[in-house]
Amino acid sequence: MIEAVRNAFKIPDLRKKLIFTIIVIALYRFGASVPVPGVDIEAVKELFKTQGGGILGFMDIFAGGALSKFAVFSLGIMPYITAAIIMELLTVVIPQVERWA
């Protein structure tokens, strides 16, 4: 297995892609551990303790534990998807937005 990894890093194009992937994963893990400023983390932890394994716990699973820490990247890609859906709906309703698209 070590030889396969060594061979993967010998190919320049594959090496660039692997390094980029490793950097993106490291950046996401860093953002998932940094709490949002101005939020009482103890209150968030207490909320998760009292709520138990309900919907917040379920959402926390998909956020990789970042929601229980109330981290900077706790929402993941959900805001982007929501904004894309709203903009798609607005292009039908507002002609100016349709021209922009």
Descriptive overview:
The protein has helices at 2-8, 12-31, 41-51, 55-62, 66-69, 78-93, 95-100. With 101 residues, the chain is an all-alpha fold. The chain has one domain. It is flat. The termini are far apart. The model has no long low-confidence stretch (mean pLDDT 85).
Summarize the entry for a quick read.
This protein is mainly α and about 100 residues long.
Topology of helices and strands:
Elements: H1 2-8, H2 12-31, H3 41-51, H4 55-62, H5 66-69, H6 78-93, H7 95-100
Number of helices: 7
Mean pLDDT, nearest integer? 85
N→C terminal distance: 48 Å
Beta strand %: under 5%
Work out the helicity level. Answer: over 70%
Which class best fits the helix and strand makeup? mainly alpha
List low-pLDDT spans.
Answer: none
Question: Radius of gyration, rounded?
Answer: 20 Å
Please summarize the sheet with the most strands: none
Number of separate strands: 0
Net shape: flat
Estimate nothing, just give the exact number of structural domains.
Answer: 1
Strand and helix order: HHHHHHH
